[in-house]
Amino acid sequence: MLLAWLHEPALGAVQLHVIETDPPSPSSLGHWEEFHVHLGYETDQAIHIYVEAFHGHSRVSSFTSASPLYPAGRGEADVWVAHDKPAQVDRIVARADARNTRQAQIDIPVQLTWTGIRQTPPRQPAAWIERLRAENASRLNAELEAHRNRPEPWWENVLFFLMMWAGPVYVIMQIRLLRRYRDGWRYAALVPVIPMVGVLIYTVYAFQAGSNIFPLVLILTSPFALVYLLGLMTVHRVALRTSST
User: Fold this and answer.
1) pTM for the predicted model, two decimal places
2) Long-range contacts of 155-161 (CB under 8 A, 24+ apart)
């Protein structure tokens, strides 16, 4: 690890500066209305640029812009924050990250109030917002296309297959072990039932709520329950062999 660190190329300087904002500060904004910051950047490495909102020393939970990968050189970026409920913000923090490490940060004092009331008619954004929004969408689409066209490691397909089948296999093993085991072993086999019932209830609730990712929690938790039962089955077999000898 030390040798790898010593041979790691030094990260260059990254600089951010504010060109303008839309709307200007101070401002009162409506439901879902976005506050945009027009940034200029200079960097010798690819970066992502993120933004956060603060009131005093507390971070204000916000909806923020996604960041494409900005190439090395000089350029412009558009970042924004928005709220659907009443909120106050007195500081915007924009940061530039490279290799998951913060490289630069800029604090932008503002006076913003979100009313939570939908503005009618909606305010028209500045021309530079539409231009940079189109550029960001183009960069994000290019990244997505490159990700889709990359060679897929064999283990990704294997892992996906195992995770998709972990749920049905877990249910079969759970029923089988509860029928076969007695006394303390049966109680041990019951351990995953309580959390998995909770996960199942949540999955049904998410489905009824119309979520398009309702089975995600079930898919992610089933492998852990299955691994537990496989481990319990192994310990049980070892215990039987030990007692028979």
Assistant:
1) 0.60
2) none
